[in-house]
Design brief:
The chain is of the alpha+beta class. It contains ten helices and seven strands.
């Protein structure tokens, strides 16, 4: 039975390298537990992010043995072979230091996609009833549990190839708003998601769906945006 894990953790910035540690193996140990042990007992200069530890905030996302994951919900026993772990920062984002990435561009692309709710009424209006079983509400609900962890963005090949691509998370959010009858920002949003780097840049590899910890399918949301965009173009509503 393995008593220690041989752990390689990325240290430094973009030009850094992996450092190696021996970490005691424990029952029900998560990858985040391993990183925390290194920081608390072996190297206090190790930089990483975490908050809730229960899969609610998404801030602990890292690349584990080549796959982007939430480290708080990833048990070592399910991802390690022969007791070896390789932990790095998320891909497709600049590295600030060690396991912490700069997510500025990730969130800026949300803004470029106009992925913010634009109300059509004020607080003085009565609350509008929304039936949960309408097709639009069902479509919105399918993608609404995104918490912006960046795993889909890190897994996306199109983001890697095309720096202008808005990415799965921003486009998924745009799709939920396209199906929200209370929202009034669709005209500007349609132009944003149909432009260069928008929904038509997606190559439908579905890496986002394969790796989403919340089991969402941004590729399906992007396909919906493609249909809306194409329909608007054929009707002359989009040029």
């Amino acid at each position: 039975m393995t008593t220690t894990h041989k752990v390689s953790i990325w240290r430094g910035g973009a030009e850094g390298d992996y450092a190696h540690y021996d970490v005691p193996a424990r029952e029900s140990q998560t990858v985040l537990d391993v990183v925390t042990y290194v920081q608390r007992h072996l190297d206090p200069t190790l930089t990483y992010r975490f908050a809730c530890r229960v899969g609610m905030c998404g801030s602990c996302a890292m690349t584990v043995n080549g796959v982007p994951r939430w480290t708080c919900r990833t048990h070592v026993s399910k991802v390690t072979g022969g007791g070896e772990l390789k932990i790095g920062p998320l891909a497709n984002m600049p590295v600030i230091k060690d396991l912490a990435c700069d997510m500025t561009e990730f969130f800026e692309k949300w803004q470029k996609a106009q992925s913010r709710f634009i109300p059509t009424k004020t607080r003085k209006n009565p609350m509008e009833p929304i039936k949960p079983d309408t097709p639009a509400r069902v479509a919105a609900n399918a993608g609404i549990e995104c918490i912006n962890c960046g795993v889909c963005y890190a897994a996306c090949d199109t983001v890697r190839w095309n720096a202008d691509y808005l990415g799965p998370a921003a486009l998924n959010r745009a799709w939920t708003l396209a199906n929200d009858e209370r929202d009034g920002g669709w005209a500007d949003r349609l132009k944003a998601v149909s432009d260069h780097g928008g929904c038509h840049s997606c190559r439908s590899h579905q890496s986002c769906e394969a790796h989403c910890p919340n089991q969402l399918n941004p590729a399906a949301s992007i396909a919906g945006l493609k249909r809306l965009s194409t329909s608007a173009y054929l009707k002359g509503e989009l040029k």
